[in-house]
Amino acid sequence: MDSGYCKRFRMDVDLPRSYVPLASLPVGYQLVPWNEALLDVHARTKYRAFCQEIDAQVFPCLGELSGCRRLMWEIRRKPGFLPGATWLIARQIDRYKGFNETSFAPLEWCGTIQGVMDRSGIGSIQNIGIVPSQRGSGLGSALIERALSGFEAAGAYRVTLEVTAENIAAIRLYQRLGFRRSKTIYKPVDSALFQDGADSSIDSLPLGFPASRLHQENTQHDSLRNSQQNVITTMVSSVVQELAVAETPQDVAESDTDEDLHMMPVGASNR
Predict the structure, then answer these.
(1) Nearest 10 degrees: CA dihedral of 157, 125, 265, 54?
(2) Which of 11, 34, 44, 270 could disulfide-link to 179, CB 3.0 to 4.6 Å?
């Protein structure tokens, strides 16, 4: 990364693509579709995926859980928010497998992706992130493939994203999935935000988010998170049941497919 700036690539793929089989998930993993009750799960998974990455230096909100929550609210409120391109990946926690009394067995949330589409038919992957402990298992490929299917079903003719130039593994993955580089972008990096003890809570607010609403929004997030627990519990039970009867998928791609998959695409630059 150049001093003061981060080099990033914009990458595009045209739709519809020639037939590409959906990537397989490892045994015990499940794609979970968008549901309003899972907004905070997306935020927490996003935080775990990005908080220690270079992207958090370019987009400070990614380095704070509260920032990721506000970012998810901003994405959800976009007029072109696309549920069909917004997914999670969950894994049933191993130590709970086989216990009859845990029909509501906890899930580990491993990855997240969100998409929006403008009126012209161009889709944008807002975030895709895989938590560090789950990289290298083909989860990134599965999320992108499912999101692209959602964009295509919604009538998009092109999908765009951004990736940090240093993230070679992610760039190779996107290229394998049909993306091509279309533009080079330099994003400023404010190193002062990352000094020990620095408070980036205000700086991490998305563009257009009044700082005076910070406490109000955090309170709303807490209230919403509490009210969502019953809905999430029901969904978790459903996902666990699907995991229990799922057939063994094919072997996933080689380990370097998405081992460093963490990026902040084009939509983030509009905050």
Answers:
(1) -150
(2) 11
**250-263 residues labelled b (16+ CB within 10 A) or e (exposed):** eebbeeebbbbbbb
178 burial (CB, 10 Å; 0-12 / 13-18 / 19+) is middle
Chain centre distance of CA 72: 10
Q: 131 near 48, Cβ under 8 Å?
A: yes
Tokens of 105: 């067995």
Domain boundaries, the chain: 5-270
By DSSP bridging, strand 158-164 and strand 122-130 are parallel
Asked whether the beta carbons of 237 and 106 are under 8 A apart, the reply is no
Q: What is the pTM of this model?
A: 0.71
Instruction: Summarize pLDDT for 48-105 with one digit per residue, the tens.
Output: 999 999 888 888 999 999 999 999 999 999 999 999 999 999 998 765 555 444 444 5
Q: Summarize pLDDT for 116-167 with one digit per residue, the tens.
A: 999 999 999 999 999 999 999 999 999 999 999 999 999 999 999 999 999 9
Distances (CA, A) of 253 to 83, 108, 137, 193: 26, 21, 7, 37
Q: Which two tokens stand for residue 63?
A: 């380095």
CA torsion, ordered 153, 257, 245, 100, to nearest 10 deg = -130
Task: Write down the CATH number for the domain with range 5-270.
Answer: 3.40.630.30
Distance between CA 48 and CA 133 in Å, rounded? 10
Pairing of the two strands 29-33 and 262-263: unpaired
Backbone angle region of 239, left / alpha / beta, with phi > 0 → left and psi within -120 to 50 → alpha: alpha
